[in-house]
Design brief:
This protein has about 325 residues and is an alpha/beta fold. The protein has two domains: about 5-115, NAD(P)-binding Rossmann-like Domain (Rossmann fold); about 125-265 and about 300-325, 2-Layer Sandwich (Dihydrodipicolinate Reductase, domain 2). It is built from ten helices and 14 strands. The protein has helices spanning about 15-25, 40-50, 55-60, 75-85, 100-110, 125-130, 160-175, 270-285, 290-310, 315-325, and strands at about 5-10, 30-35, 50-55, 65-70, 90, 115-120, 140-145, 180-185, 195-200, 205-215, 220-225, 230-235, 240-250, 255-265. Helix 4 packs parallel to helix 5 (about 100-110). Pfam families: GFO_IDH_MocA, GFO_IDH_MocA_C3.
Length: about 325
C-alpha cells in the first residue's frame, strides 16, 4: 500500500494536533508542516519528525493531501493554492467566509477530481456515531453548547465558532429543507456575537432550538432529541446518552410504560477518526461524509443566523439575553 504524503498548513493550537495524528498514522508519511510563525512551525516539525516550511507553496509541491488549519479568512486563498497544486484538502470549519468562496472551492475541486472534506469534527464524535441506530423521525431537538471563555477562535463569532457544529449535526439528522429561522444574540466580551440562540423550523414540521455561548461559567455539551414514541438525552461531556421508549404496556394511570436505557460510549479520538476518514477517501478517490456540499450547507444556515442577529436593533433584548446566558 502506497504511503499518502501529507502536510499541515497552520500548526497553532489545533493544527499541531492534526500533525500529531498524521505522524502516528499507518500508511501516511507526514512530509512537513507550514506556518507563518517559525518558532511554532519548527517546534511542531521537530516534535513530529518532519520538515518545517515557511512557505506553504513549497510544501504543496511535496504532498498528496493537506489539512488547512488557519484563520477562516485565509481558507479560500490557501485552499485555492492547493487546488492549483492538485492536492486533496481537509479544510477546518467554518469552510469559508462567504458562500461564494465555498461554491468556488466546490466547483474547482469537482473539476479537478480533488477530495474536499470540511472539518466538522463532531460528526466523528463517538456519541453521534452511537446515536444513529436510535434515530427515527426527530420532531424536536434542543441543543446546548456552552463554553467558558478562551482567547482562541475569537476571529469569528460564536455562531461560526461553536454553533455551526450543532447546525451541521441537526441538518444531518433532520432530512428536510429549512423553512424559517428565529434568532437572538449579543456581543458581551468580544466585538462579535458571544451568545446566540437560533430556532430552526423545517418544512416537515420538525423544530430545533440551538444555543451556543462562549462566556459561560461551565462547559456544557448536551442534546435532547424527541421523536414519536421515544426520547434521547445526550451528554457529550459525560460520554453517555439515555433512551426512553414508550411500550405497548399501559400503566394504571393509562400512560404507556417507559423502557429506559443508559448507554455509555468510549472516549474515542474524533480527530484521528476524522483524519483517517479523509485519508481513506484520498486513497479511494471517493466523496467524504462531510464534503464541501455539507460544509456549505452548515455555513449557509450559520450565515443566516448571524445576519438575522445583526438585524436586531433592540438593545434591551440584547441586555436581557446577556443576563440569561451570563448566569449559565
Amino acid at each position: 500500500m502506497k504511503n499518502i504524503r501529507a502536510g499541515v498548513i497552520g500548526v497553532g493550537y489545533l493544527g499541531r494536533f492534526h500533525a500529531q495524528k498524521y505522524a502516528a498514522m499507518d500508511g501516511v508519511e507526514l512530509v512537513g508542516v507550514a506556518d507563518i510563525d517559525p518558532r511554532q512551525g519548527q517546534r511542531v516539525a521537530e516534535e513530529c519528525r518532519c520538515t518545517y516550511y515557511d512557505d506553504h507553496q513549497a510544501l504543496l509541491q511535496e504532498v498528496d493531501a493537506v489539512s488547512i488549519v488557519v484563520p477562516t479568512s485565509l481558507h479560500h486563498r490557501i485552499a485555492s493554492d492547493c487546488i492549483v497544486a492538485g492536492v486533496d484538502i481537509l479544510l477546518e470549519k467554518p469552510m469559508t467566509v462567504t458562500l461564494a468562496e465555498a461554491d468556488d472551492l466546490i466547483a474547482r475541486c469537482a473539476e479537478k477530481n480533488l477530495v474536499l472534506q470540511v472539518g466538522h469534527l463532531e460528526r466523528f464524535n463517538p456519541a453521534i456515531v452511537a446515536l444513529e441506530p436510535y434515530l427515527s423521525l426527530p420532531v424536536f431537538i434542543e441543543s446546548n453548547r456552552l463554553s467558558t471563555f478562551k482567547n482562541r477562535g475569537v476571529d469569528v463569532d460564536v455562531v461560526l465558532d461553536l454553533m455551526i457544529h450543532d447546525i451541521d449535526i441537526i441538518l444531518n439528522i433532520i432530512q428536510s429543507p429549512l423553512q424559517s429561522i428565529h434568532t437572538a444574540g449579543a456581543p458581551v466580551v468580544t466585538a462579535t456575537t458571544d451568545i446566540a440562540n437560533a430556532r430552526l423550523i423545517f418544512e416537515n414540521g420538525a423544530t430545533a432550538n440551538v444555543t451556543a455561548s462562549r462566556i459561560s461559567r461551565t462547559n456544557v455539551r448536551k442534546m435532547r432529541i424527541f421523536q414519536p414514541g421515544s426520547y434521547i438525552n445526550v451528554d457529550f461531556a459525560q460520554r453517555k446518552f439515555m433512551t426512553i421508549t414508550l411500550t405497548d404496556e399501559l400503566l394504571e394511570s393509562g400512560m404507556p410504560r417507559q423502557d429506559i436505557h443508559v448507554h455509555s460510549f468510549a472516549a474515542g479520538d474524533a480527530l484521528r477518526s476524522e483524519i483517517e476518514h479523509f485519508i481513506g477517501h484520498v486513497r479511494n478517490r471517493t466523496r467524504p461524509l462531510v464534503s464541501g456540499h455539507e460544509g456549505r450547507r452548515a455555513l449557509e444556515v450559520a450565515l443566516q443566523v448571524m445576519a438575522q442577529i445583526r438585524e436586531h436593533k433592540d438593545l434591551e433584548v440584547f441586555r436581557k439575553v446577556s443576563e440569561v446566558f451570563g448566569k449559565q
